[in-house]
Write a structure and sequence with these properties.
single chain; 436 residues; alpha+beta; Alpha-Beta Plaits; MutS, DNA mismatch repair protein, domain I; Dna Ligase, domain 1; 3 domains; 5-stranded mixed β-sheet; 4-stranded antiparallel β-sheet; 20% strand; DNA damage; DNA repair; SOS response
């Protein structure tokens, strides 16, 4: 598909049909799936350590609850309003996300999982009405998972994103599904939608565009694409052309491997013992190693970091990190944990209350796609088999079933999750039960 200035000054209207499926208030919707008693109850979901609001259902939004509001500031107000608060249950959200994507994938020829609650589908060539197909996807996902979704359809991915936004915004007239392939309908929608709602246009870019008189998505679509490229970037130029119906961004069915992998969490409470901080470092390293193996990469360099609380109440503050060069590219949890703990010993200082540790895997190499140094050692076949076996057991019997001996099942440094729901789909002892 040719793309205006990006492809040799030739502009052609796209004959592609893209569809964006976006879960409605995903975290809050997940909490409702196994709690039908919450159907008409406002719900908010809290960030790590129950710090602040990161998700709200539509009822909570109508009550004026803002994203990012610290929980301790509104705890009493939430109770007064009858709002149900939940700690983040990432195991539940991740599992339901996988089920949503699998249900969509069963209906479409090509799918790009864009985030935990969004996916682009290619409807090009599917017989019948794309809007009817969108409604079928919406009904199928809800029937299979209990998660409500909105569907936006257009000739470009950027317009499909806007169509999805408009479908939710004008739900009474759209029913949660909107097709913007018709030029007149597309232009009317662009004239109503703020430029800040355009995919990739953040707060700072919105401010700069407003200074140019670009306030609506329509204004951006009408602006000279070459000028946008000179003033901003080729990425925003592509956005302009996509708003005009010229496809410049295709589906990415396979996500590219990450160039760095970071695992980090705030502790549930300050930690003053080396043993507790070391256990957190080992745990985060093991998790990062799982992610590394999942994308078939090996790590050559890693960084371990620790810090005290850097804001809030006055206290002694300290932050440090260590870069560690590994003897060979590896995904072996045992090797990574060994080096991470070695680095921790060099940066750890007694007498501080630590609030966070972090593991960063860098200089990642794809298996089979890099040249080995003739004199450099390499990971053994036995280590490969061991890691593969460990991952298989953990996938079958549950996360953390096999883990380094240093890591305990219920660590004292774990995040606060006092309001967390059950892991209805990932733990045998917390399966959903129905009583007659």
């Amino acid at each position: 598909m040719l793309c205006g200035a990006v492809c040799g000054h030739i502009a052609v209207m796209s004959d592609k049909i893209y569809c964006l499926i976006d879960c409605n208030s995903f975290y809050a919707s997940c909490e409702r799936v196994f709690r039908p008693d919450l159907k008409h109850i406002p719900i908010v979901v809290l960030s790590n350590n129950d710090a602040c609001v990161i998700a709200r259902c539509s009822l909570a939004k109508k009550l004026g609850i803002k994203m990012g509001t610290p929980y301790f500031q509104i705890r009493d107000e939430l109770k007064r309003l009858g709002v149900q608060a939940f700690s983040s249950n990432y195991a539940l959200y991740g599992d339901l996300s996988a089920r949503v994507m699998a249900s969509i994938e069963s209906l479409v020829p090509r799918l790009e999982v864009f985030s935990i609650d969004e996916a682009f589908a290619d409807l090009t060539g599917i017989p019948g009405s794309p809007e009817a197909m969108g409604r079928m996807i919406k009904e199928h996902v809800f029937k299979c998972t209990g998660i409500p979704v909105g569907v936006g359809i257009a000739n470009t991915k950027t317009l499909a994103k806007l169509a999805n936004h408009a479908a939710k915004r004008w739900y009474k007239s759209t029913g949660g599904v909107l097709d913007l392939r018709d030029p007149d309908r597309r232009n009317r929608a662009l004239q109503y939608i703020e430029v800040s709602e355009v995919w990739g246009v953040g707060r700072r870019l919105t401010e700069k565009l407003n200074m140019l008189g670009i306030e609506k998505a329509w204004d951006l679509a009408q602006y000279d694409a070459w000028s946008i490229r000179k003033m901003f970037s080729v990425v925003l130029e592509k956005t302009v052309r996509e708003l005009r119906g010229i496809s410049c961004i295709d589906l990415e069915e396979v996500a590219p491997p990450k160039q760095m992998i970071c695992t980090s969490r705030m502790f549930g409470q300050r930690q003053y013992m080396f043993s507790a901080v070391a256990e957190s470092v080992a745990s985060y390293t093991a998790r990062a190693a799982e992610k590394l193996r999942a994308q078939h990469s090996l790590c050559q360099v890693m960084r371990v970091g620790i810090q005290t609380g850097m804001q809030g109440p006055p206290e002694e503050r300290y932050s440090n990190g260590a870069i560690l060069n590994l003897p060979y590219p590896t995904d072996d949890t045992r090797v990574l944990v060994q080096y991470a703990l070695h680095g921790l010993k060099h940066i750890y200082r007694e007498g501080y209350g630590y609030a966070k540790s972090e593991i960063l895997l860098m200089d990642l190499k794809q298996r089979g796609e890099y040249s080995m140094d003739l004199f450099q050692p390499e990971q053994s076949a036995g280590a490969d088999r061991l890691m593969s076996t460990m991952d298989s057991i953990n996938r079958k019997f549950g996360k953390g079933m096999l883990r380094p001996a240093r890591i305990t099942a219920q660590p004292g440094w774990a995040m606060r999750r006092e309001l967390m729901s059950q892991s209805y789909t990932t733990r045998l002892d917390q399966l959903w039960t129905v009583r007659s």
